[in-house]
Write a structure and sequence with these properties.
single chain; mainly alpha; 4 helices; 0% strand
């Protein structure tokens, strides 16, 4: 991969699937990638739903 690919990925979070798989291959994470979503029913779930930060519940601290 070229350096601009990494820079763009770090800035935007966007990367082609083939290049993402290459990154996972280099990091020896392909098996982990293959397990994503297994055990969960993801029908009807959008990518935006999956990438939203988890909201923390609890009381706000007051001064």
């Amino acid at each position: 991969m070229k350096t601009p690919t990494y820079v763009l990925f770090e800035r935007t979070g966007r990367i082609a699937v083939a290049r993402l798989l290459k990154v996972f291959e280099v990091l020896d994470w392909l098996e982990a990638f293959d397990q994503i979503g297994r055990g969960q029913d993801l029908a009807g779930v959008s990518l935006d739903d999956l990438t939203q930060p988890e909201r923390k519940r609890g009381r706000r601290k007051t001064s």
